[in-house]
Amino acid sequence: MDRSTLYVSDLDGTLLQNDATLSPYAREELNRMMDEGMNFTLSSARSTGTIIDILKGLKLRLPCALFNGVLYYDYAESRFVRIMEIEKEAAVAVAKVMEKFDLHHTMYIFKDPILHACYTQLDSERDRSFVEHRSHSPHKKWIQVDSFVALAETEKAVFFSMPGPKEKMDEVYAEMEKIPGISLTYYLDTYEPVYYLEIQAEGVDKKLSIEMLREMTGCEKVVAFGDNHNDLAMAQAADKFVAVANAKPEVLSQADEVVPSNVEEGVIQYLQKRYPKK
To answer: Residue 101 maps to which CATH number?
Structure first.
């Protein structure tokens, strides 16, 4: 039983089921293995607004990385331990591109102790449903604003997330690439045929999340699990990168090992071999 190894898993498409839930079986087994000394945590594109409900009942003791390495959250103590803020000039430039392409959500700002998810308007039933589904969490507040640019000039921007059709988002991506001081993550959503462009401070990605979590926990070795393009960054910093069988082809090609799919509890199966039931 190796207590010097840290296991870091992505959530959607990797640890979670296809309905974006953590199965009771996975929760029970993770709790058992953590009770036996396993060092386990998460690196996800999600925020506290959704993971707290998803992980209810999971006894996660170590800090987890959210928004692709932007936020570091101590789940056990319900507090942020580190925030990677976007430089103001870069945030304003991103906001201007969003307004140029008539993108209305979402800009995330941090006002201690919670996140604020900001939008200018909700254009479709999908957008309204998206916000409604997430607006009841006490850990993230949704607010409508008049201007992203004005907000970026006065508040602490930490993350931008914008969905859209591929043709439009390809153009947005090309414009955002010209802005210094930011990192881009661009991928097809796990659950819908929608492309997401996510923006954080320069140098912030899931590679950084592995480096930060290794430092925070003091573990010598890191094994990371993933399925989507944004998880490839973890492969650069982890000692071993494990893909689930349902991962994107590009992710499978970079994996050191492939385990069964998320619906077959591939991550749990891998961990059980290291922490078998007594």
So the answer is: 3.30.1240.10
Residues in the chain, overall count: 278
Q: Which one of 180, 201, 222 terminates a domain?
A: 201
- Pick from 230, 227, 222: which is nearest to 264 by CA? 227
> Cα–Cα distance between 148 and 91 in angstroms, integer?
9
Total domains, the chain: 2
Least Cα distance to 116 among 134, 98, 100, 104 occurs for 134
CB 213 within 8 A of CB 43: yes
Task: Say if residues 160 and 186 touch (Cβ distance below 8 Å).
Answer: no
pTM of the predicted structure, to 2 decimals? 0.86
Contacts 24+ apart (CB under 8 A), 128-131: 131/105
Range of the domain at 179: 88-201
Residues 196 and 214 in one domain: no
Look up residue 117 and give its amino acid. Answer: A
Nearest CA to 67 out of 16, 133, 140, 129 is that of 140
Last residue of a domain, one of 174, 201, 228: 201
pLDDT along the chain (278 residues), means of 10: 88 97 98 97 91 93 95 90 96 97 94 88 78 71 94 96 95 98 92 92 96 96 96 96 97 98 98 93
DSSP β-bridge partners for residue 79? 74
The tokens for 59 are: 């006894």
